[in-house]
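Handout, page 2. Input:
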Amino acid sequence: MPFAERAKLRLADLLVVITCCALGWVGCSNAASETNVAPGFTVLGTTNENGITAVEVSYPSDSLTVRGFLYLPKKSGRRPAVIFNHGGVSGVSVDVKRRSRDLADKGYVVFAPTYRGEGGSQGRIEVAAGEVNDVLIAADLLSRNPRVQADRMAIAGSSHGALISVLAAARAPDRFRCVVDACGVMDVVTWYQFLVDSKGVQAVSDSLSLAIYGNGPADRPDAFKVRQATRVAADIHIPMLMQYAKQDTIVPLGQAQLFLQAMSKAGKPAPQLLIYEQLGHAFWFWNDSKSHTKEQLEEAEKSWKDFTEFLEDHLKKS
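Output:
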């Protein structure tokens, strides 16, 4: 074969090698970038909206693989973090994602867990039991993120997520700097009786309630004990904000009062309690002018401002 043709082949081979190396470097770079975005998590998908990066991830919890959403702020450098626990048992809703972005827009790294048994996570719904493990494992993984100030992490939640937050804060007092409870069930025994008295036995006769609580406290005392936030009041060693609504027909204001009594009995400082006169359940997420009055929406927005100012005081200023 003439020298010129052999030279062309060698040049072509070289170009192929260079191209493959370049593609390999790009792939490595992307993999490294995903690892840096969410170390310890498996990245399932990434979106970017108005500078806020949202990353859906999975991670191991006990023997399960569960999911969640990580939100990274526009602001560079290491940032305070918030574990943001949703209410209900149907996964991370559009409203929770909206509020997670709002928190990220204020400069926080936010993680919204998709607890076991919902939203693509393995396992079964346990209601403030194994879900606490899911949240604490996520918090540990988040603390290793290069974007996170590990010593400036809060845990907060609404309704079911509020109970999870308080139980997690009691179990891992050194992980979080503060905890926020919005309309959470703090005394499951009295709440169960409230539902029966106010809504009838059908309120606790759905398949999930029966699976978790059986026929009530006398039937399954341990199921109530493990979910009883008043029982762990002595283990809350960090600042706490409690937000409750006077018109809440799902979790009454008395739940907050019972927790305050438990804190007092344990000799702990009283949490800050804020009560909203016109609001009902899950008020952080109210934004529908067809369902709520202008005054209610203004108070709902105030509740969110109160929450974010509490975070500011304990994660950024102190």
